[in-house]
Amino acid sequence: MKKLITLICIFCCFLCMNTQSEAKTKKAEINTYEYINIPFWQKFNDDILINHLDRMYKNNYDIKIAAYQIEESDKIVKLALSNELPQIAFNGYLGRTLTSADEKFGNVVIPDYSQYHYLLPLTLNYEVDIWGKNRLRTKSMKKEYDMQREDEKGLYIVLTSNFAINYYNLIKTDKLLEIQEKLEEIQTQICNLMQKRYDNGLANKNELLKEQKNLTYIIEEKNNLLEKRDVLLNQINVFLGDRSFENIERSSFEAVDNSLHAPDTIDFDIVEKRPDVIKSKLKIEKAGYDIKISKRDILPSFTISGSLGYNAYQLGHLFGSNTGLANIGIIPYFDIFDGGRKVNIMKLMKSRYNKYFEEYNKNLLTSAQEINDALYSAKTAEKNYLVSKSRFEIQKQDDRLIAIKEEIGTANIIDYLVKKEELYLTEQNNVSSKINQIISSINLYKAAGGIDVFNDVNDDV
Known about the structure:
By secondary structure, this protein is an alpha+beta fold.
């Protein structure tokens, strides 16, 4: 009985020790909604955009798939942790032995017989982690889990940025369509007036055909804008996980706030905060654990094995005081020759570590380049918007002058309409420049790994 109690105590100690290890490795719950970074998107002062981002968080299928991938990775970590714990199983046996001949053991003769055998043991196995390789395997799987987390964070940054870009492109397309319809209306008037001139002999055929051809270009561009709007609506519905492909609520162009200003410089310490860079670093750390594991796999292993239960040949005596079964022992294991398999695995892990290290350095460099490129693009887009806005104001003045000339009779109606077309074309360029500035700001946010690098400026550009 003392041996039985000792055996139970030993395995209980192992179980408690490893349960504490499991408690230490338990991961805190992460609020993935924070990955959307609502405070940054609130700087655009568009409640409709915020509502869409909230809806996307709840319904987007890529986000749901990523959540299940994280759950899958979490289970893999727990599987690795289970190898650190004792394995307890029930391995019972119930059978009847029948012999058809006498059995001889030297001078001892056992006549043929039949008997039942009842065995109800618990088998217990535990690989003593002397070298810590099982603990290292769990840590390696934990790094894999952390990499999945960084992939998930990167997915949120890409999804929210791409959604916002499509959203603002949709607003731009709405405004361009509105202006394009005005251009079509004006060009139709010009064609009608030119037709009357041609009929009265005041214009030649080439002038008439030129204006009619310009009308076809305007209609063609209008059709392209209609197609682009439909495509954007479809893409946004996919982002939102909406199978009905309903119309998307959006703000008007006039309500768009482009007050975000790109910074003059960026502290490139943020490069190391990008999810892809963090993942590259985690891959190096995981490879380091794998090297240690491969080295310790070469060393001998020791498994504690034991049984606890009852062994009897009569059912009525199965739980008797003299039928107890208890044993415990240590099973050493060491590969004397394996064809160099474990040594080659260790060399493979070292090569993989060196490869990941170089990938990390390359990732740092390319990330810095992407941030630089996005910063220059944002600055240029801001400057171009200022130029476009100034050109639009100049065109307005030109339009007012031609309107005055048309009133006093020094300019004809066609000259006035042509100038009005120029005004609308300039307005279209201004609309595109304003939205392009916002999109370049979003691209900078995406390149910075979802970090807000913008100056807080409340005045409109």
